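Treating backbone geometry as a discrete language has practical consequences that deserve illustration. The sequence in question and its structure tokens are set out directly beneath this paragraph.
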Amino acid sequence: RRSPPPAPMRAAFAALRTLARPVPLPNLAADIVVAVPRLVCGWLLTVEFGAPKFGLPWSDPDRGLRLFEVAYWFPADVAAFGGPFAVAPALLAWLGAFAEGVGGIAWLLGLQVRLFALIIAATMLVAILCQQWRNGLWNMLPAMGILWVALYTLVLGSGRLGLDALVARRTGNA
């Protein structure tokens, strides 16, 4: 007989279950209104923003990126932000590219959207404040839009139109 996991591990699993449970919305129309921006931003994150700097199956083969490899130029861009970004630019570049590439996939699938919303929100804040701020508001708009979607997704979850809802129903966590 196996012993139960330690209390901190049980608490961590309980937190993940809570994060995965979407907030029930009043009707299907509300679920669609919540899902469409999440799906559009998920597509943009993984195809337009993530794939050029992170090796994904649909990354342009001319870039020569292996699966989950970061583009050679991205750590230098991150280091140029200065401060804490200059300490571990390769790690932070990988985390940012992962947030965009894999987080976009998670949003498209509606899987662990709250967890990825938190990660994506942090990534978009860095993009806004460290990369695009000096280029003006117009250049900040894509990151600001994705940040807005990340914030309400963090609160609402995937709604009924995502794998989180299916998993919650199957596990009795709905």
Summary: Residues 81 and 131 are 7 Å apart (CA to CA). The two ends are 30 Å apart (CA to CA). The helical segments are 7-20, 28-50, 74-79, 89-109, 113-132, 137-156, 163-170.
